[in-house]
Specification:
Strand content: 15-25%
Organism: Sciurus vulgaris
Main location: membrane
Pfam family, one: Menorin_N
Protein name: Protein FAM151A
Strand order of the largest sheet: 2-1-3-4-5
Order of helices and strands: HEEHEHEHEHEHHEHEHEE
Number of helices: 9
Subcellular location: Membrane
Number of strands: 10
Structural class: alpha/beta
Helix content: 25-40%
Largest sheet: 5 strands, mixed
Length: 263
């Protein structure tokens, strides 16, 4: 009982903080991790909830989150699906809200559909995820990614040409805009592959994301920025990397000399 009360209080607190600060945030898109209540247990309900694995219970449903966002912000929405079971009912909910005229903003839908560097081999959602989006909410921007693992101070592999070619095979014929989520700490070493991928379609972009403990290099981010058009890359980064990158990037396209960046 105490846990249920605490979840409700935390959602109320989130709502209050969100109302106070969303308009001061520079983020273009607000993200929600989505699974279903009681996933793979006898208590599974099929109701989409806000939770990140291993959590499978929450008082905070996706519907509550969407209601809050739609009432309080004009920012885009990104749903990061942690379970294939959450995709269908979540897209149905989005369809209802859209047909009611309430969703007038970009919507991104994300799922890891291929094995990536050091990643899990248990990915089995690729075809069904893409099919559900085509059937239920084709106006969304697709964000299909690779499972990854990065361990600091240990040898880590990076993305390969075979990985990006497989992704191109899966999404190349689809009509949607596609932004590929790429782990930022690994992108520089694999840049020839992602440069190739971006060249396959005007619909493509990258979203460079940072794991909580990933030692992302600002020099690497600036390199990517200097080798792409502005509309081809989005950034999902923690502080202080984000501020450091924005500060240097705001000075204009840079030329690298040694370890310093100058205009």
């Amino acid at each position: 009982m105490m846990g249920m009360w605490l979840n409700s209080f935390l959602f109320f607190l989130f709502f209050c903080i969100f109302k106070m600060f969303y308009d001061k945030c520079n983020a273009m898109v607000l993200e929600a991790d989505v699974t279903v209540q009681g996933l793979n247990t006898a208590n599974e309900t099929g109701v989409p909830i806000m939770a990140h694995p291993p959590a499978i219970y929450s008082d905070n449903t996706l519907q509550q989150w969407l209601e809050t966002v739609l009432a309080s912000s004009l920012k885009g929405i990104k749903l990061d699906f942690k379970s294939l079971k959450a995709v269908g009912p979540s897209l149905d909910l989005l369809r209802q809200l859209t047909e009611a005229g309430r969703v007038r903003r970009p919507v991104w839908v994300n799922a890891d559909i291929l094995r990536g560097p050091n990643g899990s081999s248990s990915v089995s959602v690729l075809c069904r995820f893409l099919t559900l989006v085509q059937e239920k909410y084709p106006e969304a921007t697709l964000s299909p990614g690779w499972t990854t693992l990065y361990v600091p101070l240990f040898p880590n592999s990076t993305y390969t040409q075979a990985m990006v070619e497989k992704m191109q095979e899966l999404v190349g014929a689809l009509p949607q805009r596609v932004t590929f989520p790429v782990r930022a700490v690994m992108v520089r070493a694999a840049w020839p592959h992602f440069s190739w991928l971006l060249g396959q379609s005007e619909r493509y972009s990258l979203t460079l994301w940072q794991g909580a403990s990933d030692p992302v290099s600002v020099d690497d981010l600036l390199y990517i920025r200097d080798n792409t058009a502005a509309h081809q890359v989005y950034y999902d980064l923690f502080e202080p990397v984000l501020s450091q990158f924005k500060d240097l990037a705001s000075r204009g396209r840079a030329i690298r000399r040694g370890k310093s960046w100058v205009e």
